[in-house]
Amino acid sequence: MNTATVRALGAINRRFYQHHSASFSRTRNRPWPGWASIIEARDTASPLSVLDAGCGNGRFVRWLAGVWRGEIDYVGIDASLDLLAMARARRPEGITRYRLGVVDLLDPRLATTGSFDLIVALGLMHHIPGYVNRIALLRRLGERLAPEGQLAVAFWRFAPRIAGTQKVIAWQPWAHELDLDELEAGDYLLAWQGDRSVPRYCHHTDDDELARLESDRTTGLTVVRRIQPENEDNLYLLFERS
């Protein structure tokens, strides 16, 4: 996928979150079923440093604060100023350190420092255009893992559920903004709550791409566990540094 198309898809999502951040946030308060599996093997009484990439309104850390008994040193990063403001206003009780920052997650610098026991990307990868960029982001996140740290990544697998529905928007009206020939299998424009005028770009990760991701050694990561909760469109991969 060429740079111009990546930028155009990023611009589509920036408009979406500028326009729909409030209604989107209202639907993002409950934890996903798979989150408990991410930490089930950990000692919840121990200190934990966390990087939440694509943190949105902070719902993961609010859930984590309710189930983790030890100290939590938390960093949340996101591209949406509106969602970060909501996360800032809803700091949960019991967090030792709570830091938030606006970050372009396509920027190779990643703009955050330090190492972390747990890194999560739970509502993010479907917004990253292009396989090479998704791989590059995994590599950059992996570089921030502490020794014995883990990276938990959710891959949204929504296509079978929405195929043929009004949620799917045709690409052709947007051809003036991007090169349609550069789109990859699994790329979609989706309507939000019936509004088709300000869509969001989302990528469906199919079985072939998952297999490719798991075998790609350029990330410096190894998959140690797959998590597929019932009644959830997300499949989680749990990585450790190779």
Binned, the helix content reads 25-40%
Largest sheet: 7 strands, mixed
Q: Using the CA coordinates, give the radius of gyration.
A: 17 Å
Estimated structural class = alpha/beta
User: What is the string of SSEs from the N terminus onward?
Assistant: HHEHEHEEHEHEEEHEE
Q: Round the mean pLDDT to the nearest integer and report it.
A: 94
Q: What fraction strand? A: 25-35%
Number of strands: 10
Overview of the molecule:
This protein is of the alpha/beta class and 242 residues long. It contains seven helices and ten strands. The strands form two sheets. It has a seven-stranded mixed beta sheet. A three-stranded antiparallel beta sheet has the order 6-7-8. The longest helix is centred in the first third of the chain and has 24 residues.
Short description:
This protein is an alpha/beta fold and 242 residues long. Helix content is 30%, strand content 29%.
Main attributes?
242 residues; alpha/beta; 7 helices; 30% helix; 29% strand
Chart the SSEs and their pairings:
Layout lengths: L2 H24 L8 H5 L8 E6 L5 H9 L4 E7 L2 H9 L7 E6 L13 E6 L9 H12 L2 E12 L2 H4 L5 E2 L17 E6 L2 E9 L3 H9 L5 E7 L6 E8 L1
Parallel strand pairs: 1-2, 1-4, 2-3, 4-5
Antiparallel strand pairs: 5-10, 6-7, 7-8, 9-10
